[in-house]
Design brief:
This protein is α+β, with helices and mostly antiparallel strands. It is built from 21 helices and 8 strands.
């Protein structure tokens, strides 16, 4: 073997991805609202881009039929695109885990929230105006501000300073989180005086605020309702027995009969264990669907939610006006870059919508039983199955289904919801999805009688009779995932409900 230096010629193949193509792939994983933010930033950066609202263009007919093919893009899309490295969905269908990178270097908007599909509300079955999701949010007034306003009118002098410090230590649920002795030492005041000020705060609205634990919170509310007698005091002091459903022991401790105990438990249930939660906090954000699905004849219409996507156009007139004047070399290069960037964005958004509709259409096709009959008919489905059906890479399908929500007549669902593992059939038939099994478990438990609580073993037998080949540990896992307690916990809960 010669060790002398020499020159060799070699040929190799690798995928060269430009920064623009990498960005186009990343756009797939963004929701419509995130895309709207991205477009706003691009419009602010690029003077050749114009963003218009979703009511500018006339509606196009939505897809319908059994072929589930995505709708074509706008007729003028080709005029806005000068060219690029790849066209169609293939440009976005890249496995980032295996490709090498080289760093050198919309469809027409449709008026209406549902893109012309005629669906009312986010859930697909609401009223004409849709549900008032903003009403689910909490009050703009924070708990601390509400308490400080009451302290300002009810406390004065040094006690007001102590009250302000105590209010700062109350969490969003209304509980005092710091020991009074520590606060007294920190402020350099007697403990008795801090306790007196706390007593004043505990008279503020909402009732129960300033409590140091759940028992004290409920006791404050019982006193406000004039129900804090010795029997109720013993009941509140033994909340762990209430949680366990030990009614016999509670009757003996409180020295009451069944009717009085039931009345006391019913009263206890009317109290608020977290009185501070009705104030403060950010409003609950409403989930905006990215895709609408509606029944059309014997097929389905699948459409992007155009209301959350502004219309992006290249301002050709402005480009012609600017390029016609005198420019130096740097200005011409900058203008060319802005035009290429604007054309790329229009192209990338169009490809993104086509790809999302193509994936969503295949999901609807695979899960048609769910859209027609409900969750019990949800089929096992994997990303690979959808990817193979539409001839794309699995990673592309994963990006498309991330952070996307689908609205149909059955409600609002994340696209990931339709991908579930398979449970083999007990009779050797077609496998069913894990969500269908969970739905069956939930139905069986909801229908159980208070005196005949179903154990996990019994649930396994009943599920096997329905054709589900499932183990006991799987039943327990699904039950816990749905937040359903064990048979012992449910028996105690039923006993409490019977007492209440």
């Amino acid at each position: 073997m010669s060790l002398a230096p020499r020159l060799d010629l070699r040929q190799s193949q690798s995928l060269v991805m430009t920064p623009q193509l990498q960005q186009a792939i990343k756009l797939l994983a963004l929701s419509n609202l995130e895309i709207e933010t991205f477009i706003a930033e691009e419009v602010e950066r690029n003077p050749l881009l114009d963003a218009q609202g979703g009511d500018d263009g006339p509606p196009e007919p939505a897809d319908s039929g059994d072929d589930f093919e995505p709708r074509d893009g706008p007729a003028d899309a080709s005029e806005l695109i000068l060219g690029g490295e790849a066209t169609g969905e293939a440009a976005l269908d890249v496995d980032l885990a295996t490709e090498a990178f080289h760093h050198d270097s919309v469809s027409d908007m449709i008026g209406g929230l549902d893109g012309g599909l005629g669906m009312n509300g986010v859930g697909g079955g609401g009223s004409e105006e849709g549900p008032d999701l903003d009403s689910l949010g909490t009050s703009d007034l924070s708990l601390a501000d509400h308490l400080l306003a009451q302290a300002g009118s009810g406390v004065s002098g040094p006690d007001l300073f102590i009250a302000q410090h105590l209010i700062d230590q109350i969490d969003e649920c209304g509980y005092l989180t710091v020991p009074l002795r520590e606060i007294a030492e920190r402020l350099g005041v007697p403990l008795a005086r801090v306790e007196a000020v706390l007593g004043i705060i505990q008279t503020f609205d909402p009732t129960g605020v300033g409590a140091r634990d759940l028992a004290e919170c409920l006791a404050l509310q019982a006193k406000e309702a004039d129900r804090y007698d010795p029997c109720m005091a013993r009941l509140i002091d033994n909340l762990e027995l209430v949680a366990r459903g030990d009614l016999g022991r509670l009757r003996r401790m409180c020295n009451v009969d069944d009717e009085d105990l039931a009345d006391m438990i019913r009263e206890l249930r009317n109290y608020d264990p977290k009185p501070g939660c009705r104030y403060g906090g950010d409003p609950v954000p409403a989930v905006t669907p990215d895709i609408f699905v509606a029944r059309r004849g014997t097929g389905w219409a699948v459409e992007i939610n155009a209301a959350t996507l502004p219309r992006v156009l290249v301002n050709r007139a402005y480009y012609a006006e600017v390029s016609g004047g005198k420019q130096d070399k740097a200005s011409k290069a900058w203008l060319s870059d802005m035009l290429a960037s604007a054309n790329w964005l229009v192209k990338a958004l169009d490809q993104r919508q086509r790809t999302i509709i193509k994936v969503a259409s295949e999901i609807v096709k695979q899960q048609e039983g769910f859209f027609l009959k409900g969750v019990a008919h949800l089929r096992p489905l994997t990303l690979r199955q959808v990817a193979d059906a539409i001839e794309m890479h699995e990673s592309t399908v994963s990006r498309v289904t991330s952070n996307k929500y689908l609205s149909c007549a059955r409600g609002l669902f994340e696209l990931k919801y339709f991908f579930t593992s398979a449970i083999q059939s007990a009779d050797g038939g077609e496998a069913v999805s894990a969500e269908a099994v969970k739905s069956a478990i939930r139905t069986l438990i909801a229908a159980e009688e208070p005196k005949k609580i179903l154990s996990d073993d019994t649930l396994v037998e009943m599920l096997n009779a329905k054709g589900f080949d499932i183990a006991r540990r799987t039943v327990a896992k699904y039950r816990e995932a749905m937040g359903i307690g064990s048979s012992v916990q449910r028996r105690r809960q039923k006993a409490l409900e019977g007492a209440g």
